[in-house]
Design brief:
Elements lengths: L1 E5 L3 H12 L5 E6 L3 H4 L8 E2 L2 H5 L6 E4 L6 H10 L3 E5 L6 H14 L3 E4 L6 H12 L5 E9 L15 H4 L3 H16 L3 E9 L12 E8 L4 E7 L11 E5 L2 E8 L2 E8 L11 E2 L2 H4 L7 H15 L7 H20 L3 E2 L1
Helix pairs in contact: 1-10, 4-5, 5-11, 8-11
Length: 340
């Protein structure tokens, strides 16, 4: 499959790496970026373009990866789908549920695949965690905690679009915590109640872009949950991205015994002299997956295009994640509980 990549920042580069690692199944057919210095390394490898419309007009390009600022996801995706290209779009899918629905309609009208790059679902640890929860080894899931903190200032210069709540669609929740929220739905299940709070204390941010947010959840299965994210923490320590507590076991992904991995302790494993927490065997529970999530993701995208199958993270599936994002924002503004 001949793929064009639009946007060559860090996410776009990861998709390029995935295409190269799957040589034989994929070909890097073209790249596009507004910055000439990002295009220079690709001269001689494939056509290079400085604007998205020129790449979309290239008849050699069968599918496109969109690694663009959030406000461009919907208009460029709709144009690409209308021109017969399959689309893999970076997360968040778009800024609003309404924009997402227009993208889904364009995919369905034109009979093309629309897949969202919710890359945690293509991480071996995330796939393994879901299998363990479904197996019942943890017993009834009772509580969940998930967080991700990352100081944006060293990574994005002042004045970047990502600090503009209108261009980004919000702040920490949509730009960072979207990973956690989608993974919660994937591993634990749907969330029926949301009570959120947010802070706007970063002078680099504007137009409603929050730099801290937290929420309490109730899941459809009765479990309770906590979500915590921030884009301006001072030197945050490494913590577990996901902790899942059942009545017969605990599972977490994070640092332990000097290694970041998926760890488990359960009643089924106790009493045999093993340590309190065991490192989960990802190769057994996520066979065939590599550690580079974007490579797993790209392979799945190609298989779905070839077979005409529904992707794990197609537009309609990820629409539910975007509805959860909007419920968090509504709750943070009103101070009240939002119900599904």
């Amino acid at each position: 499959m001949k793929v064009g990549v639009i946007g060559l920042g860090w996410p776009g580069q990861q998709h390029v790496t995935a295409i190269r690692q799957l040589a034989g199944e994929f070909e890097l057919a073209a790249v596009c970026d507004a910055a000439a210095e990002r295009l220079n390394p690709f001269e001689g490898e494939c056509p290079v373009y400085s604007d998205a419309d020129s790449l979309l007009a290239d008849p050699n390009v069968e599918a496109v990866v969109l690694a663009l600022p959030h406000h461009l996801h919907e208009p460029v995706a709709v144009r690409a789908l209308g021109m017969g290209k399959h689309v893999l779009v970076e997360k968040p899918m778009a800024r609003t549920v309404e924009e997402c629905e227009r993208m889904i309609a364009a995919a369905e009208t034109n009979g093309r695949i629309l897949m969202v790059a919710q890359n945690w679902r293509y991480e071996p640890w995330c796939v393994a965690a879901k299998q363990i929860v479904r197996s019942g080894e943890l017993g009834a899931i009772q509580a969940v905690h998930t967080e991700w903190l990352l100081h944006f200032h060293p990574n994005f210069p002042k004045g970047s679009w990502i600090y503009d709540g209108e261009l980004a669609g919000g702040g920490a929740v949509i730009s960072l915590g979207i990973h956690n929220l989608d993974a919660l739905r994937f591993i634990v299940g749907e969330i029926t109640e949301v009570h959120a709070r947010a802070l706007h204390t970063d002078d680099w941010s504007s137009k409603g872009a929050e730099n801290w947010a937290m929420a309490q959840f109730r899941f459809a299965n009765g479990a309770i949950g906590q979500f915590f994210t921030g884009t301006t923490p001072f030197n945050p320590p490494e913590t577990a991205m996901m902790r899942i507590y059942g009545d017969r076991g605990t599972l977490f992904y994070g640092p332990h015994e000097g290694e970041t991995a998926l760890w488990i302790s359960s009643a089924a494993r106790s009493g045999d002299g093993r340590p309190a927490y065991e490192r989960v065997d990802l190769e057994r529970l996520a066979p065939g997956m590599v550690q580079h999530a974007q490579t797993n993701q790209m392979k799945h995208f190609g298989e779905c295009v070839k077979q005409g199958a529904r992707p794990e993270t197609d537009g309609r599936e990820v629409l539910a994640t975007m509805k959860l994002v909007e419920r968090i924002y509504r709750s943070a503004r009103s101070g009240t509980v939002e119900h599904a």
